[in-house]
Amino acid sequence: MNAGRIDDGLEREVAALIAREAMLLDRRRWDEWIDLYTEDAVYWVPAWANEEETTTDPETQLNLIYLRNRGGLEDRVFRIESRDSYASVPLDRTVHLIGNVLVESANGDSVEASANCLVHVYGKKGAATRGSLYDFRFRRVDGALKIARKKIVFIDDRLEGPIDIYHL
Amino acid sequence: MDGTAYRNSFRDLVDDRVDEGVFRVDRSIYTDEAVFEAEIERIFEGGWVFLCHEGQVENPGDYFATEIGRQPVFVIRQKDGSLGCFINACSHRGALLTPFRQGSARALTCRFHGWAYDLGGRCIRIKNEEGGFSEPGFSRERFNLRRIGALESYRGFVFGSLTADVPPLEDHLGAAARWIDLLAGQARNGLEVVPGSSTYMIRGNWKLQAENSVDGYHVTTVHRVFASTISNRETRDATTGMRQTESGRIKGNVPTGAYDLGNGHMSIWALHTTPHVRPIYESKDWLEENLDPVEADWILNRGRNLYLFPNVMLMDNPSTQIRLMKPISPDLAEVTVYCIAPKGESAAARAARLRKFEDFYLTAGMATSDDVAALEAVQDGSSGRLSRWNDMTRGLSDLVTGPDEDARRLGFEPAGCCPDWDHEGLFHGFYRAWLDRMENGAR
Ligand code: FES
Ligand SMILES: [Fe+2]
Fold it and tell me: Fewer CB within 10 A of the end CB, N or C, for chain A?
């Protein structure tokens, strides 16, 4: 693939990767999910600063989740798999639906894309549907695209139930 | 009140016979509509509640919209720098006046028919006034906004009451004031509320959130997984310095304590095993030079949770926070968490404080989510009325009435002391204050 060009092949590859992530979360294939991320991946869910804007600087402002390497994802999976987390037993069921995937730019090994996601959750408290805006940065590692950065703007502002990695 | 639910006496809901080894509460206090209606009227709308931090309304025109009980109010910084608090409803036909939860305005202009109010709540403009209020002697004064009954700050924390018939705020805070001092006093340039907040709903009664915030007993069960997750992480990443989480308290086996501070206020503390990883530790020298040594020691070495009756928690643990609670119905409450931090702390301390906050204190984090699940389980269990009582006698034989040595040294007068945060004697004070307000009304 030529650096800098967004062709159909790249668009398909990106869309498949985002869909694959959603599938792995819904099917609780946590280890394969983590493998989609680079070692130094940043996973960021800003908090809302007010009704219209999220926080913008994750270092100096509050976030809902801000993980600065893949270990942060491993922590979440460790907690889920421990079966010792009150909020995670029983585990909520989820269905992620991804849409509007757009490759925004491609530069060498780095690709940026955005997508929308609706997550239908069913759990102890019944069902809910929640929306998120995704911004990805991918990096090609040994030929395969990996997630190097994922920013999730979770549009709900009055959170019902726990919000863990599989809810987002 | 819609007439569906009313009751007059609540005395039988708190079985307070400590002399006989009994202290228990009827589980219907978490589920009963009539209890809830009385709580709104007599507790939330009948006395002091926490409103906001002064940093949230710093400059003239800054406002913060919230509720007292079910009534919308806003706190505003007035022109002369003092604070005002008004019912958040236009004097015309009642529209809310604040477009945002928090904002800034030169005047509050109602977006319905365009009436406007100055920062002191005076009605300063009526759209087409001449065409509608032409009677002689008409004055806009009659449409000034309605001020709440009482408004006072203590060290930057703003409290209000719908009724004016309340004791001075310092009397209401009583022994708890000294605990606010520990939070406010650690910041040489004052405290600020960090941008961003998170609001979550609990399908549980507000009193369960109150109990949970000062329940040391659950920590080694509900947060066991947090402690193991963090120690796993810190081994894996070889975490050092301020980024380390202070999880010694969660694993247990450190000195702890709990206080019934009177008037329904409660607190717990636990000794930090690794105080040097706390963000405040960079101020150690300043604290030790400028504060009373006992106070500095408490700030640096003890994690503390303070619950102020009825609606706010001030925590100073791995991170520092305001946790504001609004009762919605017997089985629903809304909680908003803010990170509060010393102004001018180093970037490294601020980042560490925020990351610890995010790890633990949010429903998107790895501990508060488990707390919420636990207290919702209590809510659900409380419908099992055939088994009527929640027991709160743990540690009864060790319960001390009046101050212990620690309290005397720091200088506060608790109503009761528990030598271990696993004990439940602090809840006696909470439920005695609760019952007193429920029986005797506004305070
Ligand atoms: S309701 Fe505010 S101007 Fe009419
Ligand atoms: Fe907890």
Answer: N
